[in-house]
Amino acid sequence: MLTSFWCRTRRVGKYDPPLLIFGLRHSDRLSMPLFILTSPKVNQEMNEQFKNTPQVASKKKQQLFELLLKDRGIELPPLCTIARRDLSKLCPLSAVQERLWYEWRYGLSSVASNEVILLEVLGQLNAAALLEAFNEVARRHEILRTRFVEIDGELCQDLCLQVKLDLSVVDLSHLSAPEQEARWRLLAHEQAHRAFNLEQPPLISGAIIVLRPNAQLLMLTMHKMICDAQSRKILVNELGQLYKTYLQGALPRLPELAIQYSDFAYWQRSRLQSGEFHREIAFWQEKLLDESPSLPFAADKTGRADGKSDALACEVKLSEPVSQRIRQVIRHQAITPYMILLAGWQALIGRHRGQQEITVATVVANRERSELEDLIGPLSNTVLIRLNLSGNPSFADILANVKKEVLAALEHQELPYEWVVKEVAKASGQAALSTPNLMFIMEEPLDEEFEFGGLKVTSKNIEQNLPAADLTALMRQNGERFEGRIVLGSASLSDNVVELAAQYERLIETVAADLNCRIGNLPPLSD
Description:
- Helices cover 37% and strands 20% of the residues.
- It is built from 14 helices and 17 strands.
- The chain has a 6-stranded mixed sheet with strand order 7-8-9-4-15-14, with helices on both faces. The protein has a 4-stranded mixed sheet with strand order 10-17-16-13, covered by helices on one side. Strands 3-6-5 form a 3-stranded antiparallel sheet.
- Helix 2 (40-50) runs antiparallel to helix 3 (58-71), helix 10 packs across helix 14 and helix 11 (337-353) crosses helix 14 (497-513).
- It starts with a helix and ends in a 14-residue tail after the last helix.
C-alpha cells in the first residue's frame, strides 16, 4: 500500500521530519519489505486508523495514509496514469516483447523461452471448474489471447477473441514414485523449451498430471512474451479464487482490470517517441559512459540449434546462523537482504578479478504504478548497479554505496533495458551491445501454499530459465535461510563456478559478522 506514496514522496523531494521512509518498493523483485520508521504519535494514529481495516481494503488505507501525510504538510502530486489506448489503432510491441520476437524469429536466444509453473494438488480436483477458471483468467487478461504479427513492416499485438484454453491430462499413476518424479521433471524441462509459435495463440498451456487418486500436478506454461515472474503469482492467485467460485456454482467476482498489457505497451512507446524518457536516458548514459575501461555488457551470443545452453550452476546455501546475522544487519542498517547479498557479490567479483569498478545487472518488477500491480504481462525490467571498490572500503561503506546506487537506479527503472543498451551503444560508437556480463537476481518464488477451494495446493521447485549473462548469482529466501546458485553462462569461461560459490558463502559469512572489515584486508577466500 505504501509503495506509491514512497515513490511520489521521493519525487517531491520533501519529507516530514518525524516521518522517515527507508527501503524500496515492495513490488520490485530486488527488494524485500519496506522499512517504515515513524514517530510514536504517527505510529499510534496509523495503528488506530488501520486496526479495523481489512487487509484487502487497500484503497481505504491509501486514503487514510494520504490524510496523515496531508496533516503534516506533505502534498502528494498524482502519478501519471496509464490510460486505455485507442482500439482503432494497431498496438506496437513493448520493448521487451520486441527483443523476444526477434530472438524467436531468428533463433538468437540460448535460454529457455517459457515460464513453467508446477503445483501439487492434493484432494478431489474438479477439472471442469478448473478449466472454467483457466478460461476466465484468459478473458480478464487480453495478453493471454494475443498473437504477435508483422503488418506492413510493423510488429503488432493482435487480440484474438475466440481463443479457448484447454487442460490436457497426463496419467502417470501406473509408474512408481521415483519414475513419476523423473517423468514430470522431464516434462517441465520440455515445457520450458517448448517452441510456441508467436503468431498462433494462445501462448499459454496447461496440463493435469495424474499421480494417484486425489493427487495430481497442475503444470502451466507461458511464453515470456506474455508473462514475467510476478505474472506467475497473479495467474495462480486468480486461478485459485476463480476455481473456488466456479466450484460453488457462483459467478466470478474479481474486479475488472483498469488497463490491459497492450495499453502499457502503447503508453511505453508513446513516452519514448515524445521524449519523456530523456531524463532517464541521460542518467544511464552518465552512469555507463565514463572512464571505465570497458562497458558492462557481454558480446552478442547466438543460440544453439537445440535451444539449450552450456550453462553450469553450483548451489549456494548460507547457514541459519549466517542468515540470522543478515536479518540483524538489515534491521540495524535499514537496508534489504537484496542489498547485502548484492554488495557481497560485487565485492567478491572485484576481489576475484582484481577490478575496482563492478557493474552488475539486476531485475526489477517495474510495477510501481497501481494499474500495473495485478496485470499479467512482461513488465519486469533490467537495471544496472555500479559499485566503486577503490580505497579499500569497509563493507559498511560498500553497503551504504550499494543502497545509494540502488535507489538511484530505481528512480530511472521505467526506461526499458533494451533502449538503455541501444542508446549507450550509439553514444559509445559501438555497433551493438547485448546481455550484461554480470548479473545478480533476488528470485521471488511462488508462495508455498495456495487456496484452491479446500484443496491443498503447494508449489514445486523446478530448475529452469538459466540467465544468459556470463556469470550470475541467483539468491532467494527459503524459510529461515538464504540460498541460491551461481550460474556460469558458458562452460568455456575460465571462472570456476564451484569455487566461486564457496568463496561467496565465506565472504558473506565474514562480512555479516563484521561490517567494519575492509575488503582488501580480508583473508584469502580460497582453501
